[in-house]
Amino acid sequence: MSVPRQVVLDTETTGLSASLGDRVIEIGCIELLSRRVSDNHFHRYVNPERKSEEGALRVHGLTDEFLADKPRFAEIASAFLDYVRGAELVIHNADFDVEFLDFELARAGLGRLQDHVAGIVDTLALARELHPGRRNSLDALCERYTVANAHRTLHGALLDARLLAEIYLAMTRGQDSLAMDLETAAEQAAVTARIDASRLVVLRASEQEERAHEAYLDGMAKEAGGRIVWRNS
Against a cut of 0.90, is the pTM above it? Predict the structure, then answer.
């Protein structure tokens, strides 16, 4: 069964509430093809047309001055949708990012994110199923799955998407192994089915080999203090 194109996505925002007017300031996407990270990524900074809250600024470090000359979301919306169209999105705490992107797309008259993609996987929900009662932040998952993140001093959409891609592949590796095992089993069955038993050559042991084998079993029986299973039948 072929794996659909997947896009690991993350955003940075001016604050925590899209419904209260906070905006997207950065989008980062990493493409997965057949469970491998490709070189085709998407990254844009966005002018939010408003100031970032102090708490958000401490998290992402993207100043109002830095964002002032960046394109507005409506200017990059088509390129973004072209990139994600038809893909399965992989997002950590998906409700947060999807709400922000839905508000941005609605402002641009482009519907909702779900209208353009095949589906959405929430890795936070997946992590909670796999590790109930434990911390499942991106940093905690990096530590749990030994994904190097020492260079992550500030949040960044593209950097976090890359880390999440590695975490997601690690979290779902068992599914990949199962698929590979089934594939290998099917290949082995096909090879076996092609064997013509009438052409098999049976090589029987010589008298010398049989005597050596019996001597070996005698030694095993002596060490075991009695009979051994190979001579019970």
Answer: no
